[in-house]
Amino acid sequence: MLRSVSLSALLLATAAPAWAQRADENVVTAAGDAFGTSVGNEKIGLYSATDVRGFSPIQAGNIRIEGLSVTEHGGFTTRVVSGSTVRVGLTAQGYPFPAPTGIADYTLRSSGNDAVVSPVLYLGPNGTAALDVDAQLPIIRDRLSLAAGAAFRYDESFPGESSRTLSVGGVLRWRPTDAIEIKPFYGYSRAWDDVDVGAIFTGGPYLPPKIERRYFGLDWTTSEIVRQLYGAVGSVQLSPNWQLRAGLFRWENTTERGLTELYRNDQPDGSAQRTLVATKDQSAASTSGEVRSSYSITEGDRRHTVHLAARGRDTRRAYGGADVRDLGPATIGRRIDVARPDFAFGPRSRDEVRQVTGGIGYEGRWAKVGELSLGLQKTDYEKNSRIPGLATLTTKDSPWLYNGTLALHVTDKLVAYAGFTRGLEESGTAPTNAVNRNSAPPALRTSQRDAGIRYLIMPRLNLVAGLFDVRKPYFNVDQDLVYRELGTVRHRGVEVSLAGQPVEGLSVVAGAVLMDADVSGDAVDLGVIGPKPVGTTARIIRANFDYRLPFFAPLSVDFGVTNQAAQVASTLGYAELGGRQLMTEPQTIFDLGARYRFKAGTTPATLRAQVTNLFDTYRWKVGANSAFRFIDARRFLLTLAADL
Predict the structure, then answer these.
(1) pTM attached to this predicted model
(2) I want to staple 101 with a disulfide (CB 3.0 to 4.6 A). Which of 55, 277, 443, 591 is the partner?
(3) E strands, 459-505, where?
(4) What is the per-residue pLDDT for 480?
(5) Closest to 462 (Cα-Cα) out of 32, 3, 19, 18
(6) What is the per-residue pLDDT for 238?
(7) Residue 497, burial from CB neighbour count under 10 angstroms (0-12, 13-18, 19+)
(8) Which residue numbers in the chain have pLDDT < 70?
(9) In terms of Cα–Cα distance, which of 454, 619, 448 is closest to 52?
(10) Angle at 570 between CA 564 and CA 574, to 5 degrees
(11) Starting at the edge strand that comes first in sequence, how are the strands of the sheet with 81-87 ordered?
(12) What is the rounded CA–CA span in Å between residue 351 and residue 136?
């Protein structure tokens, strides 16, 4: 038997949030590191499912449900999942097959022998209101239970920019024996009357002028999106040393109606050319799954585990056929109404992707000495693109993928690690301002190198610090607005996480990432694009604190601060800027909140108040396609949760 807990087990135990009832949800106390955690509707950390080291795990296809690979479209609903954790660097130790862009792992909602109904009421600015009702229902004690819920949300981020969302879903937990667990789930969501501030593109080396943060577009440019997801995960403990896990998933996402305003060639006085992009029935659907067998052999202080895995996916997309209308001159921030035209949509393009991957992995753990993780995969990838009027374009790739990580216990408190991963990842779809909008390139060969340390400062406070170097082909919009490969992008930097409880009652989750992002290749050498990828920033620092008052235990206060360096805002360099690319302004945002825990009779409840962007800072942020949008204004949010 092993006489001490392995590094992997310790990391997974400390980093995995302890999902509680809704009234007890607190993302700061649940997080085990600063690399990204979500609990319910709250998120903290340096990274998220859309941004890890400057890349998106969602776009790359690196999403997991309880450790099993899934291809998703459009995201999850919290009626089905209780939260997520981002795994990078040392925190990914213990995953048999890591990915260069990082992994976002979601946890299904749990249920047990206690019947609980948890209503959660949200109130926010501009009439924002929402109601969640989640329930945990025991059916057969210790064998069968259900977690299910429904929610409606009206959200108005700025005056006039609003949406309505309805979501329902549930997770059934079935344990026919002590060795078998099966969790089928179903989720559905619909968003309608969804209007967004249009994308702004400047016409020169300057930021857009400061305008009031409100919706200034057309009343009828609303979008409607429908999503459903269903599947099951299961595990069988065949023997004390042998476990079989499997997951099968189906995702369907359809934008039934999409209307997007673009403000091009914006001038310093706010004048611009307005374009409307209208689409209909843009869909993406996938069937995906994974089967994994893990067998362990223990010899004294050493444990050897061999993983055999097979995963696959079948993805179908229908896109394009947009009706693009020139709506003439406009001024950002000012309402100029235009009558709704009768749209004429063209034929849609279609993509089909089939991928099958088989892999073998090894984990060796030697208590108080170190761990070795190795993986080898062979994947078979095929993509068929059918564009109206053109012959079918078929792309195939069958690379060998591999990974290796070594972690050494230098002392009882200090662990050092280093690793390398080679992957085949997706790159996302072309943005709305591209002439080939919504098209998706084939999967890309990517790589990651990282190294670092984990130091246990005190029993409940740990530090993780590491270096990373991620490389992949770089896609963006060129001067002709064609979304295509423009070179190779390299993100390298330092990331630091400090998390835990330095003193009784105080929880800290703080982190920083310092990154140098560069693009190389012919497009840079010829001056087609600049050397820095658009949307990236050299520095992000985030810290969250939660303090439970010792003299009044029901009350806790929380504080958050985010500091971000300037973002790269243009593809090209400008002579007016000395040949440099345009940059946004750096920003520092403060959030302040409190929780008051009480009982209404015998019912535990929590009242939560929070102010985000406390000082109402005004800044522009920019997307990878050089589209500007102002950051959120100061918002006051009030939440009341109870467990009946």
Answers:
(1) 0.92
(2) 55
(3) 461-477, 483-503
(4) 84
(5) 32
(6) 96
(7) buried
(8) 1-20
(9) 448
(10) 115
(11) 42-44, 37-39, 81-87, 103-108, 63-65, 68-70
(12) 40
